[in-house]
Specification:
alpha/beta, Helix Hairpins, six-stranded mixed beta sheet, 20 helices, 15 strands, elongated
Length: about 650
């Protein structure tokens, strides 16, 4: 399996559409994705599992919430819940020697109070409806969920695998799923069924009659189940027809204005509120018009009045000054020194005389309105009041125009409310359709309950029949051909059992070596010199150089994490490294030397494709340099603390720029 691309649209912290190219090349198997805590690294790991497994996905962010609640809360807080969120994953697998390209798109949105989820699967660019509907079963053939948990993991939480009991579950699941032991078990089970059928044909007549009676009862129960299931299909079809009929009535009801009819009181209340708001706005406009606002219609007259006020003020000032000018001029001439020439004195007298004449002319204003002395100040105050009132008037005019439009809209909606007499038949028809659908759904529910009851009875009879066959299997009479089949089946079962044991022993031995080698490659020092896996219990036992068992509790948190990683690495080696690895928080709790060992020895060899989700303190600038020859792509998850959203940018911190380090 090879991952090619993942797209996140408004999922979790990821705002808008964010995509990452996950394709790798030989010798460069690593995609490095950096992000500070809370930026969305674990969300990315959850997204890969969610798009593949849906409600069965083991997402770390789900907790104890229901699947419905988890999807609702996974929609980005800045996004429209009606648009919802979407995850698309592109990958390829080899089927019958031919590479096939998959694109799996899981999307969901909130419609009213309901959450609607969709899954579309495209194979080689074409939509596959059957595969989309049966995806939960198909994905188990591609990548079983139990196996996926071994390759998509949190580097810190994976430490729990160092616990013997937890490791036993992992080993058992991995050996049976990854290494083909489950196939041998299935063959042995099939041979048991073959033996049972052949032996039944050779029992004595009394036993045969008894078992055939049970078979008849079981067949009757099976037939009753099939008939009831067929009836249930008819009930479902009836529900579907009634739903279509209700949809049709709902459409007619809506087209006839039924929605408006149901909202009539709300519309009337809304129209009344808008009308009252418009009346208040118009009343405020009238109050403004009762003030000085109409003077804005006389701009020329106000300008003329202002000029007149200026002239009258100048005339008043000149009148006050003219009386003292003669004394001033005489005083100035007396102040002149004796050295001033007669010509200079004459020129000054002339200039002073001219100034007096000018001021006398200003004082003699021919037309006067007898304006008050503070007329200019009053006019300035009037200008300010007019400016303020004009601004308020413009606001009120704009608001009243918008309110008037809203009132027109409200009037149109009210005008569209149909008369109760006209819509009465549709209301009754709609209510009848709703009631009929409810009755049909209730019958369907009871039918399903009865079907489950019949299924349980059928299974109980089948179990009784199975026990009867097992009890009487040794009473078979000898018929050469049938005995030969039974005999050879028994031999084949013994052979398969031995083969299964040998296969399991071979895998366990290889796994012990692979895990121990992996652990020694990662550790700078270790108390562990031997590692054994119990085939019966699938348990993990550690031993020191003297062969004494070591309690995993003696290991440090970092050592337990490395032991767990070694277990997964060993499983991947024995299985052939066919699957991608996604590792979140890969270097938590590890010292610098262990980190270098992981970077140098594990990550480049963990598989054909390895996704690392790291903080800047885990894979720092130094480790980035050591990892660089194996890198196919690098990305940084950039989080905006003001909007609480994350975007994906190409490059890692020390290659994308210091702006990402915060």
């Amino acid at each position: 399996m090879h991952l090619h691309k993942i797209e996140l649209h408004d999922f979790g912290a990821y705002r808008g559409k964010q995509s990452l190219d996950l394709s790798v090349k030989p010798g460069r198997p690593i995609i490095l994705i950096g992000g500070l805590n809370g930026c969305g690294k674990t969300t990315l790991l959850d997204a890969i599992q969610l798009v593949l497994y849906g409600p069965r996905a083991r997402c770390s962010g789900r907790g104890n919430r229901s699947y419905d609640s988890y999807l609702r809360e996974s929609i980005n807080r800045k996004a429209n819940s009606a648009d919802g969120a979407q995850i698309a994953l592109e990958f390829s697998i080899v089927v019958d020697g031919k590479e096939r390209h998959y694109r799996v798109v899981r999307s969901w949105h909130i419609s009213g109070k309901q959450l609607k989820e969709f899954l579309n699967v495209h194979v080689d660019g074409l939509f596959d409806r059957i595969l989309s509907e049966g995806w939960p079963d198909h994905v188990e053939d591609i990548l079983p969920l139990e196996v996926a948990s071994l390759f998509f993991f949190d580097g810190e939480k994976i430490e729990s695998l160092a616990d013997p009991e937890r490791a036993a579950t992992v080993i058992q699941s991995a050996v049976h799923s990854l290494l083909g032991v489950s196939t041998v078990e299935q063959l042995r089970t099939d041979l048991v069924a073959l033996q049972r059928r052949q032996r039944l044909s050779n029992e004595d007549q009394a036993v045969i009659d008894q078992i055939r009676a049970q078979e008849a009862e079981h067949e009757a129960a099976r037939q009753e189940y099939a008939d009831r299931k067929l009836t249930l299909g008819g009930m479902q079809s009836r529900c579907d027809r009634l739903q279509l009929q209700l949809d049709k009535v709902e459409k007619a009801f809506k087209e006839a204005g039924g929605n408006l009819f149901e909202r009539q009181k709300e519309l009337e209340s809304n129209q009344k509120g808008i009308a009252e708001r418009l009346a208040a706005q118009r009343s405020a406009l009238r109050s403004l018009a009762a003030g000085p606002l109409p003077l804005l219609m006389l701009p020329q007259q106000l300008a003329t009045l202002r000029e007149q006020a200026v002239r009258e003020k100048d005339a008043d000032n000149a009148t006050r000054v003219v009386g003292v000018l003669d004394e001033r001029d005489a005083w100035l001439l007396e102040q002149l020194p004796a050295s001033v020439t007669a010509a200079a004195r004459t020129a000054l007298k002339k200039k002073l005389a001219t100034d007096r004449l000018k001021r006398e002319a200003a004082a003699e204003l021919k037309q006067t309105l007898n304006l008050p002395l503070d007329a200019l100040e009053q006019l300035s105050a009037l200008d300010e009041a007019l400016s303020r009132d004009a601004s308020r008037a413009r606001e009120l005019l704009k608001e009243s125009a918008e309110t008037s439009d809203h009132l027109d809209d409200a009037d149109r909606l009210l005008a569209g409310v149909p008369d109760e007499k006209l819509i009465k038949d549709l209301v009754e028809e709609r209510n009848a359709a709703i009631e009929a659908l409810a009755v049909a759904k209730d019958e369907l529910r009871r039918g399903k309950e009865q079907l489950e009851e019949i299924k349980g009875r059928r299974d109980r009879i089948g179990a009784d029949l199975e026990r009867a066959q097992q009890r009487r299997v040794k009473t078979l009479i000898e018929i050469e051909e049938l005995d030969r089949i039974v005999e050879y089946a028994e031999k084949a079962r013994d052979t398969l059992e031995k083969f299964g044991e040998a296969l399991l022993q071979r895998h366990i031995s290889r796994l012990e070596v692979a895990v121990l080698q992996s652990f020694k490659a990662l550790m700078r020092k270790s108390l562990i010199h031997d590692l054994r896996i119990d085939m019966d219990k699938s348990s993990l036992t550690l031993a020191d150089s003297d062969g004494e068992p070591i309690n995993p509790g003696r290991l440090s948190a970092g050592e337990r994490q490395l032991l767990a990683i070694s277990l997964l690495w060993g499983l991947a080696k024995v299985a052939g490294n066919r699957l991608p690895s996604v590792i979140d928080t890969p270097l938590g709790r590890l010292d610098s030397q262990h980190r270098r060992h992981l970077v140098d020895r594990y990550f480049p060899n963990a598989g054909r494709q390895v996704l690392l989700l790291s903080t800047d303190e885990e894979i720092d600038e130094t480790l980035l340099g050591r990892l660089k020859p194996a890198l196919a792509h690098t990305y940084t998850l950039v989080h905006d603390d003001t909007t609480f959203t994350t975007t994906v940018e190409a490059g890692y911190w020390w290659t994308a720029g210091a702006s990402h380090v915060a």
